[in-house]
Every structure is written in structure tokens, then in C-alpha cells.
Amino acid sequence: MNMQTDMQAARVSKAALWTGxxxxxxxxxxxxxxxxxxxxxxxAVREGxxxxxxxxxxxxPIVVAEICCVLLYVIPQTAVLGAILLTAYLGGATATHVRxxxxxxxxxxxxxxxxxxxxxxxxxxxxxxxxxxxA
Length: 135
What we know:
Blueprint: H1 3-11, H2 14-40, H3 42-51, H4 59-74, H5 79-99, H6 105-121, H7 123-128
Helix pairs in contact: 2-4, 2-6, 4-5, 5-6
């Protein structure tokens, strides 16, 4: 273990670290399951794409972009970039649901969980966005 990892571990409680890891795993697992579904059920994916107004040939590029964002999020060195890109991806999902007048709160909740999980497990983000000020 290097010195920076030791310092980061000392600044994040064990409970916060594990809570952050679990919260981070939830959207990762959900999005990866959606990606697997997209590859395994092409008929359902075609219907969903048509319902939301997307041509069916963009399904695979969209899923590849989703997987890339998730991979960046799970790598500690690129987790902040991954969270930013996942937020953008989920913003597109929100816009799609709004456009077809479907409930749009799920992608917003997922984005909040992405950032909350990262906030709890990464002291750099806590330093950047402190939720409380020291006296």
C-alpha cells in the first residue's frame, strides 16, 4: 500500500468507506444488468428504442458508452470522471423519459446515489465539497 492510499484510508472511516462502496455498487450493478439485457434481448431493446424515438442501430453504441462510463466510475483513479460521465448519461435518460412523458425520477435518483457513493468513499471529493465547515 502506498503512502497516499494510507493517508486516504485514515481520512475516511471504515463505515463511510463501506457504505460508499455499497452505494456505488448499486448503480454499477443496475447499469451493467441493463447492458447485459440490451445484448441478450434484442427484440425488447428494439421495441424500447422505437418507443423512445431512437433508431435501433444506436442501441449498441449507447450501451457501449454506458459500459465505458461505468468502467471509469469503478476505477478509483478515474472515478470522478466516471461519475461526471454517468451523470451526463443519466441526464440523457432523464430527458428521454421527460420527452415521452414517462416518470423521470429514477435516473435522477441513480445519479444522486452515484455521487453519494463516491462522496463517502473518496476523501478528495469530501475536501472539494465539504458538507460542513470546521470552526
